[in-house]
Each structure stands twice: as structure tokens, then as C-alpha cells.
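Quick illustration for those who missed Monday's session on complexes.
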Amino acid sequence: MNTVAVALGSRSYEILVGYEILSSLGSIVQGVSPSKKHFFIVDEKVQETHAQIAVQSFEEDSACAEPFGIDAVESNKVMPTVEAIWSSMLRDGCDRGTNCIAIGGGLAGDIGGFAAASFMRGVPFVQVPTTLLAMVDASIGGKTGVNVPLPTADGGSVLGKNLAGAFWQPKVVVADVATLGTLDNRQFRCGLAECVKHAMLGNDGMLQLLLEQVDAIFARDAGVLVELVTMSAQIKADVVAADEREAGCRALLNLGHTFAHAIEPIPELRLFHGEAVSIGLVAAVACAEACGLVDGVRGDLLRSLLVSLGLPTRLPMPVHIDRLLDVMRVDKKAIDSSIRLVLPTENGADVVENVDDSAIALAWTSVGAIL
Ligand SMILES: NC(=O)c1ccc[n+]([C@@H]2O[C@H](COP(=O)([O-])OP(=O)(O)OC[C@H]3O[C@@H](n4cnc5c(N)ncnc54)[C@H](O)[C@@H]3O)[C@@H](O)[C@H]2O)c1
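Prediction with nicotinamide-adenine-dinucleotide bound:
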């Protein structure tokens, strides 16, 4: 089992990465956050499998009667679900000393973390990620939250992603790569897109691992997955430790994301987040090339890596650039409607202010957008 430290003073914790370690979850949790009671928030897809192994590792009378099951769709990542979790915790007699344990993908972790952050003004929280994306990204760093309905001009509403939430660091993150054995290939690849992003932040060792171990990664080789998750988690942990509240360098983790956020909500494209990130990374590299921040070699390397991992590098159908620019201007990372981007450099990435519209248009054209 590998250990990655997230150094945050009194809120420090460890990320444990291993194979078939969920049967030890009970003793791991008791070691870092001793409690007589444990409440579980569980992704329904893993409830009968991985979560059962995890829950059974606790002393029988310390686990709350029924785990709270969540169907992991974004429309469930909303306040009524948080309220239902609170009610369930109250019914089970949970108090301020109860450990709240989320088992599932990033969705279960985000909503479970927010319920833990707010129940009785905060109870100890444990992350047990079961998707690759959650292992290398969502479970690390303490961002929790829910989607919030936003009114639209026609009197309806759309869900605004992650618009309410809290920073609430877990006591420990336990990533068991054995759980990835049941994850479908499309979701698995989405996690790989975030690994590529982390590698691009300046970790050549990880870039090398991704380039050389494609077959082993897709064969879900336990040793290679432990190495991949450990390296990727280390990169996120270091950035979080340097900037817990995203006042500075944590913004670098948004590499490719401002482009991704513009295309992810377009229903016709039917893109998962990781797929949008993959296309977003290609656009970010093209934009960096147009701004003279990187040469073509880095872009070619990235594009061929993404292709070898089965990730998209172009839009599945053309979209007008004006539509994309409008969305980018209202993205959370834009200030005063000028576009601020995280772009790759030769050694990693940097935040670039006031990026020229022509460089962004060029980036969009490079992934198949049209004028
Ligand atoms: N807090 C953060 O820093 C952060 C960062 C990135 C993403 N997120 C959030 O994370 C969510 C996305 O996370 P995700 O990609 O893990 O998706 P997810 O939680 O929606 O899970 C994806 C799918 O995989 C299923 N699943 C989970 N584990 C499985 C397993 N082991 N085997 C088979 N199926 C499994 C789920 O039921 C779901 O259908 C989004 O809500 C996003 O906003 C949060």
C-alpha cells in the first residue's frame, strides 16, 4: 500500500492507495478518526459489491443500519438529497462524533462531503473513491458541494454545477484500485484524462508511465494502477497543500477546463466530463502554441497520448466558435468578461490573463469548431 501525504497543518491527512484494501477500511478509519458510529453514503452501483466489503470491515454495532444509497446522476447532486442524508443520519442517532464515509465516484464524494461538512456544523469525513477520476482528483483537496437550480429566461431552470458547497477535508482517503475492475471503459478513460492533465502540469515521470504502460493500464494491472493513482494523487496533493483555498496555484488544476466547461453542457455533443477535458487539453495546447508558450512538439506528444488512451481530441460535431466564446466569458475563471486561462508551458502550466480572442478562436478551430 502506498501513502501520499496531504500537508495541511491541523487538517493534514493521508491518501492510501492499494489493491484489495477495502477489507481493512474499518481499522484504517478507527486509526485516524476513532468513533463508535459510522454512517455510509454509497453509490448504488457499488452498494452490493465494493461497499459491502468496506462496510463489513467495521465492528457490526458501529455501522449505521442502512447505508444511504445514491443513484450517481447530476440531478441527484442537489440540496434535497443532502437534506435526505441529514434526516437519515438523525434517524440513525448520529451525532457530532459520527464518521461520515462516502463510497463511490466523485458525485457520492462531493455530496457526502457536503452533508458531512454541514451536519451538526461538521462531522469527520472519509473518502473511499471507486472511480479513477475520484481517486486522482475529486476525493483529494476538500472541495464538496451540490448543483443549484438557476432560473432561465423562459421561466424554467437549469442546474448550475457545484454552485454551493464547502471546503471540508477528509480524515483519510482510501483508494482501492480493485474497485476499478467494475468501472466501464468510458468512465475509466475519463479518469485517464485527469491523469494526463496532472502529467502535463510538469511531471515527466507520469507522462512516461502513461506513454509506456497503455496496455497494462487498460488491462487494469493492479501494480501499474497503484503506481498511476499514487503519482497522480501526489501531484494533486502537492498543489492542494500549496494552496488549499484556490487563491493561487490551485487554479493550475483547471488546465483545459475552461475549454472543457464550454463544450460539456452542449447536449448534442454528449460528452462526459473527462472527454470534454481531453478536448479541452488539446485546445489549451493549441492556444498556448498560438501564444508562443509551447512549441509543436509538446502538442503532438499530448495529442498522440490522448489518442492512444482512446480519448477524443476533436469535437464530435462542429460547433460555432461564437457560442463557445460566450460560454467561456461567463465561466467562473473569467474576470470582467476578459478570458483568463490556464495554459501549458514548456515546463508545466501558467495562468494567462487577457488571452487574445484570435488565439482562442484558433484553439477552437484546432478541435473542429467553425466560424
Ligand atoms: N470535489 C472535487 O474536487 C471534484 C473534482 C472533479 C470532479 N468532481 C465531481 O465529481 C463528479 C464526477 O465524478 P466521477 O467521474 O467519479 O463520476 P460519478 O461519481 O458520477 O460516477 C460515474 C459512474 O460510475 C459509477 N461507478 C462508480 N464507481 C464504480 C465502480 N467501481 N464500478 C462501476 N461503476 C462505478 C457511478 O455509479 C456512475 O454511474 C462530478 O459531480 C464532478 O462535479 C469533484
